[in-house]
Amino acid sequence: MKPTIALVGRPNVGKSTLFNRLTRSRDALVADQPGLTRDRHYGHGRVGSKPYLVIDTGGFEPVVDEGILFEMAKQTLQAVDEADAIVFLVDGRTGITPQDKIIANRLRRSNQPVYLVVNKAEGMRSAVATAEFHELALGEPLSISASHGDGVRELMEMVLEHF
Ligand code: GDP
Ligand code: MG
């Protein structure tokens, strides 16, 4: 059976850009405006002989509830439940945000494998791009550039290794 991989992360980290690259489609809406992709999008792709299904999510929409309380979007939670593996994207240019920490807290309790992926790392040394993200305690972060394609194949080979 094809493994399902969910792309998760706060708005604007590059989920839809990665989705497009993984599915070679323009299905997902990519925009400068954070949080524009509202629904889940499904697409098919393959690495070598290994096919996969990938889910693009609209991100974790912040809910302000007396003070600062964030909740994962229901759609995203559903995508996480459906997935066999989770790719958690963060932004190597902006660094860790409070939303990243909330998402990381939730994903640390996930039953599926979680891959912490530092995007927008083109032109950066991997060790520099990933350094601060060790704090999220989700294992060794990988660095990629969804828009340039750097590290994307290596990421997918790692994710698909056990399927
Ligand atoms: P999403 O909200 O997580 O789906 O993010 P998008 O895929 O819509 O991307 C948000 C913004 O980040 C867009 O302006 C993208 O062009 C930009 N972006 C995505 N991937 C990269 C990358 O690898 N490098 C850089 N520099 N920008 C990127
Ligand atoms: Mg999007």
From TrEMBL:
Function comment: GTPase that plays an essential role in the late steps of ribosome biogenesis.
Family to which the UniProt record says this protein belongs: Belongs to the TRAFAC class TrmE-Era-EngA-EngB-Septin-like GTPase superfamily. EngA (Der) GTPase family.
Organism lineage: Bacteria, Pseudomonadati, Pseudomonadota, Betaproteobacteria, Neisseriales
Organism name: Vogesella indigofera
Subunit record text: Associates with the 50S ribosomal subunit.
Residues reported to bind GTP 1: 9-16, 56-60, 119-122
Source species, domain of life: Bacteria
Record protein name field: GTPase Der
Residues of the EngA-type G domain: 3-163
